[in-house]
Amino acid sequence: MAKTPISVCNLLSVCLITFTLQTLTFGQIQKSFEAKNITKDVAQDKSNIVPPKLILRYEGESGFAGFINDVLEPREKGLLNGGNQKVAIRICSQEKLLLALPLATQNPFNMIDFLTKNSGFEPSNIKLLRSEDCISTAKPNLYATELWTSNDNSDLIPNVEQYDYEQIKMLSLGFDPFECPKFDYKKATKELIKNMRNDSNSYGIVVKYFFEKPSATLNKRVDKVEKLLKKNRIPNSRYKITSQSWKEGESPCFGKEPSQPMIIFLTTVASSKKSETNKK
Q: Concatenated DSSP letters for 120-134?
């Protein structure tokens, strides 16, 4: 019986199939090679990320003059360069950030004022954070304050709440130990209540500043402020009454016991940028 000859068409089909298989195999190898290169590039990108760095931490109450001295060394080492560098101030507290800011161991607003006016930092490059995993075990009643350089990675700093500095609005309505103004605390309290009624996301802080101890007159006036807040049905979760001692060199009023409380109104000018994913 004669053998059936292999047609050119059949041979061509076999060649095409073989060629196709070879092409697919080469394509798979090429894709695998590209995937490895992409993975390698991503790894290289991650290796180039400069992690946030803790520059300063204040566990106990510290005067502003101390902060000015403390930033000299990081500046000399090139850790605080200003310009486009990003920084974050982190407050260690279980209180909401707006309530915790005026009670921090180092005044965050004074820190920011110095960094922007004397160290060349842009306000838009400053963030304020709150964390609950950095509370001092030695002094848990104090809100430890930290200064970080964050570059583009402030989210890598563990926090449960964060704001851009420019989002926060603070208005001092009462006695200011940095200016020692004379004012009517009752009028200031009424203005605080009015502002808080108009802004449900705002908070009020009443601070009894003292040199040796709060005066009897100051205590009586703060009691009246609290009564006015309660009378006007301001929830106690939205205000805080506290006392703070003066630090040497911080106030031109130093040595004179104030008879007026400091009254602060705090709110935000934009929606908060909270981060729950970074809670550790």
A: -B-GGGEEEEEESS-
Secondary structure of residue 211 in the 3-state scheme: coil
Q: How far is CA 211 from CA 89, 214, 245, in A?
A: 27, 7, 6
pLDDT at 181: 65
If one counts the domains in the chain, the total is: 1
**Predicted confidence band of residue 184 (pLDDT cuts 50, 70, 90):** confident
Residue 242's alpha-carbon distances to 12, 125, 142, 171, 214, in angstroms, are 91, 31, 12, 17, 11
Q: What is the pLDDT of residues 83-125, one digit of tens each?
A: 888 999 999 999 999 999 888 988 898 899 999 998 889 999 9
Residue 169 lies in a domain: yes
CA 56 – CA 71 distance, rounded (Å)? 8
From residue 49, alpha-carbon distances to 38, 151, 227 in Å are: 17, 9, 52
- What pTM does this model have? 0.72
Cβ contacts of 44 within 8 Å, gap of 6 or more: none
Note down the domain range covering 206: 53-268
Would 29 be classed as within a structural domain?
no
Residue 108 covered by a domain: yes
192 in a structural domain? yes
Helix (H, G, I), strand (E, B) or coil at 105: coil
Distance CA(190)–CA(24), nearest Å, equals 78
Residue 251 vs residue 162, higher pLDDT: 162
Q: DSSP 3-state assignment of 10?
A: helix
* CA–CA dist 203, 56 (Å, integer): 28
Q: What is the 3-state secondary structure (H, E, C) of 56-69?
A: EEECCCCCHHHHHH
